């Protein structure tokens, strides 16, 4: 299979020239190793995976001997299996002036991240890779950062292919795991089954001691049924026949493994009585479609959940866009006590860009009237609009536009 260029490559190379060690985290099978091995072509860089039990045993029992055997510069895969290496990595970093000595990948977040931050503070850059975005699959490269002004959106439009709802739902249904990009529907189904049974169940058992596979599968399906909605622990617990504290714990595990993304609600003292519950999204929409039993892109596109899946697609594409870009942005959603909801707030440079998400190609422009609730507060509003299936950028008013979803 041909290599698909990843948007994170630019940032990774830049940071590898600055930090002595780099860690790429993310869910399993999203392409972390493939990207690093691609970037290491032409370099003399050792490669070792701790999925190999002999290498793992050596790393855990004798880190000094491990690095005599596998010399830096090095790629170490699945580094979470041997946190014992971090102290020795620190020693080697402190003895050398070279940057980019260690390229690490890891999938299980919490424990590893705590270890890494405590041991390697100031020496390591940490980046996150997600499954393939639609623009990565299409080979679309935007030269400028995402910018919600009319001129910024129009300059992106010149680079993007035409928006097409069938194409978008094919991507949503298939998802972005590199292995399934060219798989047929039967192969995709078997891949998703084995992804849940092998990687997910194994990691969940190792990480959280969860051994009840049947209840956990029910829990996954219940999460998929709640996609793009506020998390409801009572529903999740009842659907999977577990206690609410267990549902909280399991969701935290899924978030740590990069399977789900929880969009936090906006919090601000100027606006009273705001929602406190996060909204639930799947980092890979293909896995969510599989768990929800949508068997073809057409049934998903025409089904009752299509709006939720479209929202999941937009939120996760934005998430990827900001994870790989040079600018930092904070994403939240807004909901007040009167159930007035704005799907997405993008906060950057002290400005808030309010965004509504609609599957329609011609949504009602009155949707932006919701943004008026913010004008009465001290929040600084930036440009925003309605992200939808329209084919070109059209202004709605001085601050807002119809934004084709393929520009994010």
What can you see in these coordinates?
With 408 residues, the protein is an alpha/beta fold. The protein folds into 2 domains: 8-128, Rossmann fold; 134-407, no CATH class. Helices cover 42% and strands 16% of the residues. It has 17 helices and 13 strands. It has helices spanning 8-16, 32-39, 53-61, 63-69, 85-95, 110-120, 134-138, 150-157, 165-174, 185-208, 213-225, 233-240, 244-256, 285-291, 297-302, 306-324, 372-375, and strands at 21-25, 46-49, 74-77, 102-106, 124-128, 260-263, 279-282, 330-335, 341-348, 351-357, 384-388, 394-395, 400-404. The strands form 3 sheets. A 6-stranded mixed β-sheet has the order 8-9-10-11-13-12, with helices on one face. A 5-stranded parallel β-sheet has the order 2-3-4-1-5, sandwiched between helices. Strands 6-7 form a two-stranded antiparallel ribbon. A hairpin with a 2-residue loop joins strand 9 (341-348) and strand 10. The longest helix is centred in the middle third of the chain and has 24 residues, at 185-208.
Name the descriptors.
408 residues, alpha/beta, Rossmann fold, 2 domains, five-stranded parallel sheet, 13 strands
In short:
With 408 residues, this protein is α/β, with parallel strands linked by helices. The protein contains 17 helices and 13 strands.
